[in-house]
Amino acid sequence: MKIKEIITVSMILFSVIDIIGSVPVIISIRKNVGSIHPEKSSIVALMIMIVFLFLGENILNLIGLDVSSFAIAGSLVLFFLALEMILGIKLYKDEMPESASIVPIAFPLIAGSGTMTTLLTLRSEYDILTIVIGVLLNMILVYLSLKNLGFIERILGPTGIAIVRKVFGFILLAIAVKLFKSNLHF
Question: To bridge 106 with a disulfide, which of 33, 44, 81, 177 should be the other Cys (CB 3.0-4.6 Å)?
Answer without folding.
Answer: 44
